[in-house]
Amino acid sequence: MQSSPCERIFSRFASDSCLLSISTSAYRKADPSASFAEAQSHAKRYESEAYSKAASKAEYDQLLQQVIDEAQAQHSAAPVIDSPELNPNYEEEQFQKDAITIGKYQHCHHHDDGLLSTIYRAKNDDGELVALKVTTPHLMGPPHDSKREVRLLKETASKHVIPLFEAFDLAGGRLILVFPYMQFNLNELLQEDILTPSQVKSHLRDMFTALEFVHSLGIIHRDVKPSNILLKSPAGPAYLSDFGIAWKDGDAGSEPSTQKITDVGTTSYRPPEILFGSKDYNTTLDLWAAGCVVAEVLDVYHSQLFDAGPLGSELALIQSIFTKLGTPDTTVWPESSRLPDWGKFEFHKYPAKPWEEVIKGASSQGRDLVSQLVRYESASRLTATRALEHPFLSL
């Protein structure tokens, strides 16, 4: 028995993996109040309608994208999810055991370990929870410098940069930085998948607002990533944190402007210019990383945009970038002709993938914002100010 046109279309489209899962997740992200069963039911209905109307895969994708865009527009002001509270016994239990004293702060408890620091949680004289970042400056090597971090944090004090309450020295050459304690970071909230569309946009606006101010001072953060965006609750506000490798021209601890260190940032968020040896990079380095953060927030599975592999290999990262954005040449990326390490290897010529394929389940406006930040030519990336004006982030 010969199949009907609709049946043939359905069969061809259904060969794409996880279509229903992606549609269901995208619907739930657009309407957080929907249950899984409700979201799946809506997704099935929308897909069925798309199958019946579409004459091609491209038309089918377009119809589903319209549904996602309309749903996100309709529910963009979804109710804020209640903020989780600390376990009622959590604080008391922690302050009764394994405590140490750090300067005037008693009952300090280990919270986390950084690459060159240790974080403790304590209470200040007012009973407010604070985070103490214990560093040893003389054991740090460039680009890490906690003394410079203190200087730059004092200069960048603003609404969405993490406040530095105080800094003090201790015996043994230790330098302690004291911040307000933040229970959450954006990476953790993405993994828990509990943010509403309005919260997502609010946190991204806070990130770009912080970058706008930091960049206006000539400071490059050099480590923008979800785990460095801290929040007291899922509702926000969000704060840009960890200025341990930040750079400013003329600062005593910063390299010369044309001899900046290229081994900065977290591998998957590094832009292509430093992967090919640029030492005169500028604030556009942060905007590439910010674009990667936006993509990670929008992706239905919250996957990192680019993959550096299990070992954090720069060659693996370059391949990941090329396979998604396409292998560039000097026409696509004029800046590459000036990069010290460009042309040393011959790369496979990958075609660029459409953003609809790269970031699944996202709105068209969200993808457009990413596409204007994650660009080879650094001068063509949106500034933080322009990003804040983008329709996706408009209030």
UniProtKB/TrEMBL annotation:
<dbReference type="InterPro" id="IPR000719">
    <property type="entry name" value="Prot_kinase_dom"/>
</dbReference>
<dbReference type="InterPro" id="IPR050108">
    <property type="entry name" value="CDK"/>
</dbReference>
<dbReference type="GO" id="GO:0010389">
    <property type="term" value="P:regulation of G2/M transition of mitotic cell cycle"/>
</dbReference>
<dbReference type="InterPro" id="IPR011009">
    <property type="entry name" value="Kinase-like_dom_sf"/>
</dbReference>
<dbReference type="GO" id="GO:0004693">
    <property type="term" value="F:cyclin-dependent protein serine/threonine kinase activity"/>
</dbReference>
<dbReference type="GO" id="GO:0010468">
    <property type="term" value="P:regulation of gene expression"/>
</dbReference>
<dbReference type="GO" id="GO:0000307">
    <property type="term" value="C:cyclin-dependent protein kinase holoenzyme complex"/>
</dbReference>
<keyword id="KW-0547">Nucleotide-binding</keyword>
<dbReference type="Pfam" id="PF00069">
    <property type="entry name" value="Pkinase"/>
</dbReference>
<dbReference type="GO" id="GO:0005737">
    <property type="term" value="C:cytoplasm"/>
</dbReference>
<protein>
    <recommendedName>
        <fullName>cyclin-dependent kinase</fullName>
        <ecNumber>2.7.11.22</ecNumber>
    </recommendedName>
</protein>
<dbReference type="GO" id="GO:0000082">
    <property type="term" value="P:G1/S transition of mitotic cell cycle"/>
</dbReference>
<dbReference type="GO" id="GO:0005634">
    <property type="term" value="C:nucleus"/>
</dbReference>
<dbReference type="InterPro" id="IPR008271">
    <property type="entry name" value="Ser/Thr_kinase_AS"/>
</dbReference>
<comment type="similarity">
    <text>Belongs to the protein kinase superfamily. CMGC Ser/Thr protein kinase family. CDC2/CDKX subfamily.</text>
</comment>
<keyword id="KW-0067">ATP-binding</keyword>
<dbReference type="GO" id="GO:0007165">
    <property type="term" value="P:signal transduction"/>
</dbReference>
<dbReference type="GO" id="GO:0005524">
    <property type="term" value="F:ATP binding"/>
</dbReference>
<feature type="domain" description="Protein kinase">
    <location>
        <begin position="105"/>
        <end position="393"/>
    </location>
</feature>
<dbReference type="GO" id="GO:0030332">
    <property type="term" value="F:cyclin binding"/>
</dbReference>
